[in-house]
Fold:
Amino acid sequence: MTTMLTRQPAAPTENGAGGSARSREKRQRQSAFVYIAIVVCLALFGAPFLWILLTALATPQQLGEGAGGLLRFDNLQWNNFVEAVTRVELGAYFGNSLFLATLTAVLTTASSAIVGFAFARIRARGSKALFTIVLATMMIPQIATLIPTYMMFSQVGLVGTYWPWVLWGLSGSAYMIFLFRQFFAAIPLELEDAAIIDGCGWFRTFVQIFLPLSRPIILTSLLLQFTWAWGDYLTPALLLNQDNTTLAVAVTNAYLDPQGNGITTLQAAGSILYILPALVIFLFFQRYFISSALSSGVKG
Amino acid sequence: MTVLSTPPAKARPWRRYPASTFYLFAAPWILGFLALTVLPLAWALMISLTNFDGMAPTYRFVGFRNYVELFTDYPQALRSLWQTLLYTAVVVPLSVAGGLGLAILVNRRIRAVGLIRAVFFLPSVVPVVATAIMWRLVLNPDAGMLNGILGLVGIPSVSWLIDPYAFYSLVMVSLWGLGGGMVITLAALQDVPAELNEAATLDGANGWQVIRNVTIPMISPVLYFQIVTGVIAALQVLVQPLLLAQTSSIAMASAVPPSTHVYMVQVYQEFFTNNRFGFGSAMLWVFFLVIMLFTVVLQRSSRRWVHYQASSNED
Structure:
């Protein structure tokens, strides 16, 4: 504050014309700087996308020629995408990923909504302490529990099956429980009173009054959980086998030539096919992702 | 927060909210928490006191020997912890500051600003596997884009994915995803009342002073949130160093160069290369305690510089 106060205040009225000309020049210089910075950042953030696309469209020979080889556009190998799908059973991996991500999204959303409703609306001894624990579990690193869970599941024969995803889904996610609780807590009491007067039990109140109101948050939860499960690498890598694993694992290790070396161009094409659904979902539902990012940030 | 003019009515008896209903509704999470969080952690604690190798049905209780070994007789593990702290200390400030910088950059009325923001945000929604594959292509010593560009100005080819450069590459890849922080910061910026900036400017503050003395204090809760989640994410980084170093079809912890051989890579190696489940579990518990320590320290420090709007006159 002191530095601000001791500064000479700008004198807007004195020699007005000269000052405004100078400030206009300054503003122009500033906006030129802003545009240059934006263009540079666009290049930095966008370049890897461009490069993977160029690699996916190249022949192995072009790749061998170095970076310049990728910039020859006379011989684009669109066929790489076809080969990426046919050479390995990409469709099957795609199906596995789709199944697991959908399963996770639906189960997690359903149970998080129910639990969030309980924390928002049903009073009981101990519920506040429990909610503190819910928030605290968000701080537990996922990986610190994943490896021990893997040890446990391997003892009871759940490794190699999709059951762990069912269990994780059914138990909900702390973050989603938090989002649902915040949303439900803001719904006016009168609505619930009316339902109770009409003779609804808690479950009917939840299903008929609260769920229909929470459509945006349900969609947010489905999208976030789906993209999270779609992008998850470590869990399928630890818990599944090569023949029932997800696309995330397959693109890292399935594209091999007979000698067992990775085929870079096909891997690039396969990776593009793998990220495409995530990007499409994001582009279509951008505002849901952003609004959920916001509500998490506002929590502070 | 509403002030009730009537005395609290007894018409809403607690019996209307039987505790059993709450516990019925909350049961999925409670059971999941016990079975999938508490039990695994307890299991790991138990295993950490043994010499279990992941297979042999007979294993012995060895007391705290794994922990003692970790701290006194295993420089590799301590070194990995040090690399992790270094990585966290570099990446978190850079990504929060970078997110703030980008947010300020795009917080203005210019053409196609929505598209620009989307491009900045997009990398943060790319799955980690694809991020690693993309960057392996960009950083490839022979056909990589970075070396291609450097070659244009006459800089000879650099092997970005091995030491001594692997650490910088990992930092670079991590920073590519800072658009997620940008979006959160951007929303916070848009909540800062314009009058505050105007008042500061009228008082003669230049652009940097406005940011330093008005903007940052106003959005400090959001910055704090990003630091906490960023620190926790950075401490447990694993997939990126693992996949960036991948040369064969299998991701091997032993292929990861020393400078990016972070703590979790070491844990992964103990479990899945060395089959030392007992020792790995001890490492996980130490990690768990380190995370808790960080959370508490951050919470303490936040009182000094995070300003929540509700209480503007704290200290």
